[in-house]
Amino acid sequence: RWLAGHVLIAGGGTTAALLVAGLAGGLSYGAVSGRWADGIADVTAAAAVQVPAALALGGFVVAVFGLLPRWAGPITWFALACALVMGQLGSLFELPQWLLNVSPYTHVPLVPAEPFEATPVLWLMAAAFALGGLGFAAFRRRDLAIGA
Fold first, then answer.
1. Per residue in 13-49, pLDDT tens?
2. 35: containing domain
3. Is 50 inside any structural domain?
4. How many separate domains does the chain show?
5. Does residue 76 lie in a domain region?
């Protein structure tokens, strides 16, 4: 229950933060452009489509925490840094595509510039649940003391 509570708070908080940021961005766009409906819908959709990638990274964190608890901090911070740097600067540094594909954010559809495609989103959600499940299974096997 302890791990589940933390994972639910982190996943729910991440989802809420992305949706609120998208809504705020959409409102800002609407205020500047006068295209309220399009702005709110497009920018919120662009933020919402990032949720599966963030949850996949979260699933990786849970898996590492369950399997390698002593190394969870450094490994997961390194993974986050790599995913963000590759996503933001990978093409600038002309990194090879196979390396860019390591980041879950590379697979997210570029909504609203491109049409929404469900396949990568579903794969990212499957990865999030599979990695999270692996982490929960490994965590249950750990020898933890219960008490004060």
1. 999 999 999 999 999 999 999 999 888 999 999 999 9
2. 2-141
3. yes
4. 1
5. yes
Please say whether the beta carbons of 38 and 109 come within 8 A: no
Three-state DSSP state, 126: helix
Tokens representing 107 are 């697979």
| Contact between residue 41 and residue 29 where contact means Cβ atoms under 8 Å apart | no
Calpha distance 46→22 (Å, rounded): 7
* Longest CA–CA separation in the chain, Å: 59
Asked whether residue 146 is domain-assigned, the answer is no
pLDDT for 60-90, tens place per residue? 999 999 999 999 999 999 999 998 888 888 8
Residue with tokens 């995913």: 83
Q: Which string of DSSP letters, residue by residue, matches 60-82?
A: HHHHHHHH-GGGHHHHHHHHHHH
Is 96 part of any domain? Answer: yes
